[in-house]
Amino acid sequence: MKIKILISMLFLMVGYTAEAQQVLPLYPDSIPNATVKLTKDEQPTLEAYLPIKEKANGTAVIIFPGGAYAFLAYAEEGTVIAKAFAEKGIAAFVVKYRLPKNETMRDKSFGPLMDAQQAIKTVRSEAVEWNLDPKKIGVIGYSAGGHLASTLGTHFSKSYVPNTENISLRPDFMILAYPVISMDDQLTHVGSKISLLGMEPSKEKVELFSNELQVTKETPPTYLTHCGDDGLVDVNNSIVFYQALQKNKVDAELHLFPKGNHGFTQRLPVSEWMEPMLGFLRREGMLK
To answer: Are the CB atoms for 144 and 183 separated by under 8 Å?
Structure first.
């Protein structure tokens, strides 16, 4: 009921502001997988940026900032991105997902995925109130946020959060920018792996969260972008994921740049990183 009231307030704001913004609790009641009561700052949230009615096209993107699963680059890989998408008529939702911690979770490896599933469940269930097409809701993730986005896009068949309504948890598309994809030692970003899985994860956990191994023909169409000189996340993360998508005949675009290092989209004008993404969405029928 509380989230319904907040959503209604937000929806009313859209007609009067060029940029509607509201921070909603991701879970209206208890938070799954939590072993302690979280402080206000620790609680996962969904921050909504809705375009003005004249621009709205019904497409939505759920944004997962990076930060090696140790912190969130919430502004540069979250709110800045959301505002840019809203200006193009695309509703944007920034997820403040829980960072994996043994001190606050029963199993820290599933905490971020739970929040990602809850985020897409919330956005899709409230599509009418937000003037969205429930079949045009995708995700975008940066760095470790790209790992989370690709985990959501390859693990959607099993719900890790309560979902009695049986709402689809499958994104309709994925956009992955310099993403961590694999947990294999030859490819992974070590800091992200340790933060998510711990120092000595089981072989089963490593394989489960190596998303290049989890691709099927049902994996959503995917746009990937990376730099060859990325000194933090090996460019081969994007390459192996693209190859897995190709093997399973999933629509995919891979944009590689020779130079730019990690986080290169933060240093480019918005048009340079956004236009290729919009082109991909148009070709996939996600934008008119």
So the answer is: no
